Amino acid sequence: MSIGNGAKSKMAMKTTILAIGMLMAMQISGAQQQAVVATPRPAPAPGVIASHPDWPKANPEDVKSPEAIIQALSDTISGEASKARDWNRFKSLFVPGAGRMMIVRHSKTGPADLTILSTDDYQARAGNQTFYEKPIAYEKQSFGHMTHVYESYAIFHTPTDTTPQTRGVNSWELMNDGTRYWILQVYWDTERPDNPIPAALAK
């Protein structure tokens, strides 16, 4: 069949409108692609660990497991008041610049409180004391990169003592970054007549 002039004109107009629409869509798509290319994502800021490249490096044997890092800290903080501890080894176990050690302060007349120490605070406090700390038992839980450990401990006056001066429980928060463990914090309370160590941690 033949198409009349009017029909041809309408068809030509539709074709022109369609071509213009396609051209505009291509221009918008091209502009969007240019905008994506022209706006690169900013680099992520370094994390706590990456921000401290000069932090003391740990002995891999000290940080290979929760038990290893707990034993390493116990060994490092123990000693004679007259002899310097290895404080670089001590710091190498902690998350750089963020590790904390927290002591529960219990009172007979009021609510319990806390003393919160940085690694530098703890060094100044413990460096002039004589004591030897030894782990007793552990309870561990992990999820993803996080590990929580309840660890009972005993404090002795000399390395050869068999009767501890005191005992207590440390609450450890650790992070495993895929290559090693880090200490975020150690939080502890001591054993008392009204606060005995739980049977599972008193082995």
Keywords summarizing the entry:
alpha+beta; single chain; 6-stranded mixed β-sheet; 4 helices; globular
Describe the structure in your own words.
The mean pLDDT is 86. It contains four helices and six strands, in the order H-H-H-E-E-H-E-E-E-E. The radius of gyration is 32 Å and the shape is globular. The protein is 30% helix and 28% strand. It has 203 residues and is an alpha+beta fold. A six-stranded mixed β-sheet has the order 2-1-6-5-4-3.
What's the quick description here?
The chain is an alpha+beta fold and 203 residues long.
Mean residue pLDDT: 86
Strand percentage: 25-35%
Helix share bin: 25-40%
What would the principal axes of the Cα set say about the shape? globular
Tell me the distance between the termini.
101 Å
Main sheet record: 6 strands, mixed
Number of strands: 6
Oligomer: single chain
SS field, number of helical segments: 4
Element string (H = helix, E = strand): HHHEEHEEEE
Uncertain segments are none
Query: What is the CA-based Rg, rounded?
Result: 32 Å
Instruction: Kindly name the structural category.
Output: alpha+beta
Spatially, the strands of the biggest sheet line up as: 2-1-6-5-4-3
List the helices and strands and how they pair.
Blueprint lengths: L4 H34 L27 H12 L9 H6 L7 E6 L7 E6 H8 L5 E12 L2 E11 L9 E11 L4 E10 L13
Parallel strand pairs: 1-6
Antiparallel strand pairs: 1-2, 3-4, 4-5, 5-6
